[in-house]
Amino acid sequence: MGIDMDTYELVISAHKDVIKYFDDIEYLSEYNQARILNVMSESRVSGRHFAPTSGYGYGDEGRDMLDKLFASVFGGEDAIVRVQWASATHALNDCMFAMLRPGEAMLSITGKPYDTLDKTIGLGELSTCGSLKDWGIGYYQTDLTPVGNIDLSKVETFLDIGQVKLLLIQRSGGYSRRPSITIEKMQNVINFVKSKRPDICVLVDNCYGEFTECSEPCHVGADLTVGSLIKNPGGGLAPTGAYAVGTKQAIERLSYSFTTPGLGKEIGSYAASYAPFFQGLFLAPHTVSQALKGAILTARVFETLGYNVFPCSQDSRSDIIQSIEFKCAEELIAFCQAIQAASPVDAHVVPYPWDMPGYSHKVIMAAGTFVQGASIELSADAPIKEPYIAFVQGGLTYEHVKIALMIVVESLKRQRYISS
After folding, report:
1. Separation of alpha carbons 204 and 224, rounded Å
2. Is the same domain home to 114 and 215?
């Protein structure tokens, strides 16, 4: 594969440095695997649940069983798991409109959400037609403290504003270098908020965080938890879709927004087999463990090469994202292009920055994946702005990440971003 011995030894040495952290990850994977196995067994999942359906989807056993499994695994009273959601952003949009009414407001307590939600909220100079702002729904935001904690003193000031009815927690940092929000931190915040305002709905964007700990947001009191099926919980097999788990009341309101009042969860078919969604959920703890190991190795390799990385290789994690800071836009682009070249699909394709819908800067995305845009598979993306940070995630197998890192380092050496 054209890997010279120095590069090979660099990655192998990094692997030896971080292997001591893998026992904890393997325990986590086994624990979550046991939880899922137990739920699937007790729910009597059967081959009939994989069968496709058509039309209205009345009595769709596969769809209803997926809802039941996700509710149990993610600690909710009920769930909606649907292929009709094109992304987690789509599902979050539906949650916000389901839980808020004109004259009410949302409070984001982990800073600004992902760029893809700007138009939903109505941020920026132009208020997009159909945004929350356009419907007379307000938006407030509190930033994290300098060390990455939720600022409870600032949050408390907004709890006195009666119009605030929805509180958003984004678990992962998105395009920022802040730490992910752990389940323990979420629990402390949710307990605090509910003690002051039990009427507020707590919505958690759980993307990239599923199965990175032993429990999930609904286990610690979140009213709604949302994520993408082509990230962690799809295990690399789910071809599309998103999920929402929560209280019966929240899921009922969401279901009426998702389809129509009175019909809710009772309709919606899928003309292909549901098997990839069931099998993907079953495989998810192991797949996430591979991504976590790969993220730690990536951090160690680039630490050794002198780059600023976040989190560091020894840090605890509550999502699968690894960020690496580069010196210039050209080096950032070269890194992402090398990740693409190390992919099993479309390795011959060269990605370039482009005006991607939903983002305020040009974005480069490297994703030579079996499922388009699946960030549980090894991928990297970055907005082209200072500081020049690539966000790396996924890896269906640790072995692929290890080999890909060798290919990436070789590529950066050839372009003289790394000295030989």
Report:
1. 6
2. yes
Q: Residue 116 in contact with residue 358, Cβ under 8 Å?
A: yes
Beta strands 105-108 and 138-141: pairing type? Answer: parallel
pLDDT in tens, 173-227: 888 889 999 999 999 999 999 999 999 999 999 999 999 999 999 999 999 999 9
Taking only the tens place, the pLDDT of each residue in 334-378 is 999 999 999 999 999 999 998 877 677 899 999 999 999 999 999
User: In this structure, which amino acid lies at residue 330?
Assistant: E
Measured between alpha carbons, how far is 243 from 254 in angstroms, rounded to an integer?
11
Same structural domain, 319 and 170? no
pLDDT for 125 beyond 80: no
Indicate which CATH number applies to the domain containing 19: 3.90.1150.60
Which domain does 410 fall in, by range? 5-32+281-414
As a whole number of angstroms, the distance between CA 10 and CA 406 comes to 8
Whole-structure pTM value = 0.96
Closest by alpha carbon to 94, among 217, 260, 248? 260
CA atoms within 13 A on the CB side of 211: 33
Contacts 24+ apart (CB under 8 A), 27-33: 28/211, 28/212, 28/213, 28/214, 28/285, 28/289, 29/211, 29/285, 29/286, 29/288, 29/289, 30/285, 31/214, 31/285, 32/211, 32/214, 32/284, 32/285, 32/288, 33/285, 33/286
The answer to whether 115 and 360 have CB atoms below 8 angstroms apart is yes
- Residues 379-399 have pLDDT tens digits of 999 999 999 999 999 999 999
CA dist., res. 395 & res. 366, Å (int): 13
- Name the domain count of the chain: 2
Token pair belonging to 1? 């594969």
